[in-house]
Amino acid sequence: MIIENRNFDIKQIAESGQCFRMNPIGQNKYSLIAFDRYIKLKQLDENLIEISCDENDYNNIWERYFHLDFDYGIIVDRLVNGSDNFLKEAALYGKGIRILRQDPFEALISFIISQNKNIPSIKNCIERICEAYGNRKEDTASGIVYYTFPTPDKLAEAKKEDLRSLKLGYRDEYIIEASRAVINGTLNLEALKVCSHDEAVKTLKSIRGIGDKVANCVSLYGLHHIEAFPVDVWMKRVLSEYYNNKFDTENYRGYAGIVQQYMFYYIRHVYGASN
DNA sequence: GTCCAGGAACTCA
DNA sequence: TGAGTTCATGGA
Which among A72, A108, A225, A236 is least buried, having the fewest CB atoms inside 10 angstroms? Predict the structure, then answer.
């Protein structure tokens, strides 16, 4: 499938820190493991991307995953024509970013792991947990072997020592407890998709190991509440240095998560983040 | 050896 | 409520 869209840049998405299983495999090419599937993406030119899937999978899975049923150009234009100079630069720089509609459980565990870690380290931990608790699969087209993200029952039954050996640090207990909450129904991720963002964050924060930042990431990338606004160390840098800690998300009501993503991606570029 | 990373829990005031 | 400390781990 070849997709034409002026706001769809696979490199920007892969480096935007919202998903951890999209990796470069060559010039303008990336692999992605999501929903038990392995696909390749190739940026043919600025507005053209080739996805290694058929029309059926595109319509049922990837169009939703990449939020291609929404026009990001409207948001970018609004920011570029607005009065906020930092956001003007940020939106232009990251105009190919999209908010991914990831599997909620994968987002939940991934962002629990993410706390106090840098992105390469998060990726390593996630690959180890997939190899240990996910299913081994082989992509029929390429013959590439990959591992799916573990299901909640696998991680709910995991032993703390086994997780600790995967170098997850103190997060091992958080992962087990969160998975058990999903299994026993305390944490109903599907229900959190259809309730409000505020309600979702409140529920997520009732789980040990999930604070405001992780809850907002899960809400944004796993539950697709695009009004979520995660603030990590990079975002704190932006808010402090460019806004004197007076940034008001109400000015971007309903799509603050997209604005946040442009800010995050741009500030890391400004500081020359190599990870 | 020191500092930092898409933080959160805990303690103490 | 708010500041300070601790928690594993790897990389710069």
Answer: A236
